[in-house]
Amino acid sequence: MTKRVLVTGYGGFLGCSIVRQLCEHGYKVRGIARGHYPQLEQLGVEAVRASIVDRNAVIEASRNCDAIIHTAALAGVWGPWRDYYQTNTLATSNLLEAAVTNQVQAFVHCSSPSVTFDAKPQSGIDESTPYPKRWLCFYPQTKALAEIAVLHASKLGSLRTCALRPHLIWGKGDPHLFPRVIERARRGKLRRVGDGRNFIDVVHVENAARAHVQALERLLAGDNALNGQALFITDGQPIACWDWISCILDSAKVPVPNRSISYTAAYRIGAILEALYWTCRIRKEPPMTRFVAAQLALDHYFSIEKARTLINYQPVHRSVSSDT
User: Whole-prediction pTM value?
Assistant: First the structure.
């Protein structure tokens, strides 16, 4: 019998790619989001217009589903705790409750490598790296709380779960990452932090989507090795941070900025601006934060050996420049 999969955030950059791959694999797909996506409905996706923060809505949306892929989240580095907690943590708890209530078999959670980030270099780390004791912004903190809940749920009842951690998702049609970098450069708001030679990982949207589908299939097949595990997902090819940014700008024919600032100075400026913005209750994101400074200046790349082993993950798209 054909399996039905509920995909949260199904109209987003990653969610849309996951939906298309699920349809290609013969799954019935039900999507839940606040937006309307007729192009996906034309593929046969059953659309549910609702917020994942609405407990009753997600319980109803997950009825008769065999699995859930949860990609919806509030990203960013600035904003009220309440917004991040409700969307990233509470909504995940609602979905887990719905999964148990409706006897869903498998739950694949889209997490983030930032759940392990503690403002120190992360050079080829693996999943044994613990959660940090301090957080630089609410996004990784609330995503970590959600991931912990997902992995803990694997120990309760018959629901099988896993959490995937794709890093800096890119690809054709990216509405967030590349446009943000390009716009900051055009406005003269972008500069190199540190020497730019720190290495980072990125992941093509098709690689990230494939990993979610592969994980889903393993869990539906009753794979106990994957159950309760977190996996880093990248293109498996770290790149120097400023080379990556330069590649993005070159592809958009935007001049690469030649101004730079030390990591120490950027971090201090970020701390000062954060304090000022909080005190003055300014909702707009500061031009620099401690998290952004650390991400731009420090290594953060990851081992994907666990993903290779547990879900046979093999990155296909590897060139950052060829698909922009």
Answer: 0.94
Pairing of strands 199-200, 239-240: antiparallel
Task: Name the nearest CA neighbour of 136 among 293, 311, 255.
Answer: 293
Q: How far apart are CA 47 and CA 252, in angstroms?
A: 35
Active site residue 139: yes
Fold designation for 4-170+202-235+300-311: Rossmann fold (3.40.50)
φ/ψ of 136, rounded to 5, equals -95, -15
Structure confidence at residue 172 as a pLDDT band (50, 70, 90): confident
Two tokens, residue 274: 């954060």
The pLDDT of residue 111 is above 80: yes
* Given 139, 267, 301, 313, the catalytic residue: 139
Domains of the chain by residue range: 4-170+202-235+300-311
The yes-or-no verdict on residue 324 having pLDDT over 60 is no
Residues found in the chain: 324
Residue 321 CB burial class (10 angstroms; 0-12, 13-18, ≥19): exposed
